[in-house]
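Record type: monomer structure entry
Structure origin: computed from sequence
Chain ID: A
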Amino acid sequence: VQLAESGGGVVQAGGSLRLSCAASGRTFSNYAAAWFRQAPGKERDFVAVISSTGGTIYYAESVKGRFTVSRDNAKTTMYLQMNTLQPEDTAVYYCAASLSPFPTVAYSNNYYSEVAAYDYWGQGTQVTVSK
């Protein structure tokens, strides 16, 4: 699976952006997909995950109520609508895909939030939120 993010940019605090993640190379509709973000000097953090059918969605607590993840399997694209952006949302945003309908393991209830759960990654798109 090849993944390509787009839609990043510079926005003022309180503004909105919509990120897209275009997939190619395999049957996108078979795989879960997720958004992560990485700020300078920090680890890559989970943002949101959506199952292959779109029926299961989870968000990081820090973005609940502000961000919305969705997917259009016919267009092999995943989206992240980001509203009420804050300076702490500034990061490189990455999309990722898991070679399963939804990443799970017996030993963890939130495996979907771990970097290791995903097999393919995009190159990232920069989001900068100014005060």
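Annotation 1: The mean pLDDT is 96.
Annotation 2: Residues 14 and 80 are 16 Å apart (CA to CA).
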